[in-house]
Specification:
Layout lengths: L7 E8 L29 E6 L2 E5 L5 H8 L6 E3 L5 H4 L6 H7 L3 E5 L1 H10 L16 E5 L5 E3 L2 E10 L2 E8 L2 E4 L7 H6 L5 E5 L12 H11 L3 E5 L7 H7 L4 E3 L5 E5 L1
Parallel strand pairs: 3-4, 4-5, 5-6, 10-11, 11-12, 12-13
Antiparallel strand pairs: 1-2, 1-14, 2-3, 7-8, 8-9, 9-10
Length: about 260
């Protein structure tokens, strides 16, 4: 109808840091000593609030701290990009949400990622277990085909993390692509017409399994989202200095950043 406003949803950056977080244990560099709160980076994860649902991408090592800070009281699903420890080890802290909501939580991941989750969290999937001692999750295998949670359509985005195939996710005009070192040509098509893109950018120097800053800028400019925010950043990228160097449509994300996106 003329004049009808497009539906929107919010994306909250729970953590914008790399696997070591920032500050890094044992480091005395300027970024690790920075007083700028945007330089304090928990491990990468985002929370999507859409149509009354709460969808989490990755249970980072810092999930408990992130959930307390953001006031998370329920989760309707968790989407996993891949199985590396900084993206899955917070899964045990889903237990308290199970307890208070009295609901199991579906977890969506590829067959390979689910296999690693079952290995790392073997105690969760044992037939004999106490319900109060383990997170109650429902594994749901996904591939590169679109799927729905409730009435929300989710498009997986195939990506490469070094030699490891991983997934990004697109919901409406938002996409999340972390830990990426190469975007296949067919995935660029899936990233057309975005309002907001969250894209991994590890550091200034090249890295074998992550986009460096220059590579991330190049990919962001090709995708041409209205706004791109870099995520999964190391202590090599101080917020204020790096932000000042970026093109107008590209920014650094930071912990607690909340974005509104059209469906």
């Amino acid at each position: 109808m003329p004049g009808t406003r497009a539906q929107t949803f919010t994306v909250e950056v729970l953590g914008s840091g790399t696997s070591m977080g920032v500050p890094v244990v044992g480091c005395d560099c300027a970024v690790c000593r920075s007083d700028d709160p945007r330089d304090k980076r928990l491990r990468a994860s985002v929370l999507i609030r859409i149509r009354g649902m709460h969808l989490l991408i990755d249970t980072s090592i810092d999930f408990r701290q992130q959930a307390l800070r953001s006031g998370i009281h329920q989760l309707d699903a968790v989407l996993y990009t891949h199985h590396h420890v900084d993206h899955i080890l917070g899964m045990d802290d889903l237990r308290s949400l199970n307890f208070f909501t009295r609901r199991d939580i579906p977890i969506y991941a590829t067959r390979e990622t689910l296999a690693h989750i079952r290995r790392v969290f073997a105690y969760v999937f044992e037939p004999e277990k106490s319900p109060s001692d383990v997170p109650r999750v429902i594994p749901r295998e996904i591939s590169k085909q679109p799927f729905t949670i409730g009435d929300v359509r989710i498009q997986p985005i195939p990506l490469w993390h070094g030699q490891l195939p991983i997934l990004g996710f697109r919901i409406g005009r938002f996409a999340y692509c972390t830990d990426v070192s190469r975007i296949p040509e067919e995935s660029f098509v899936l990233l057309e017409g975005l309002e907001v893109l969250l894209l991994g950018a590890l550091r200034r120097r090249p890295h074998p399994t992550h986009f460096c800053l220059a590579e991330a800028i190049e990919a962001a400019q090709r995708i041409a989202a209205r706004q791109t925010y870099f995520i999964h950043m190391s202590h090599d990228l101080g917020h204020a200095q790096t932000e000042a160097e970026l093109p107008d449509t590209i920014h650094l994300a930071y912990d607690g950043l909340t974005l509104t996106v059209s469906e």
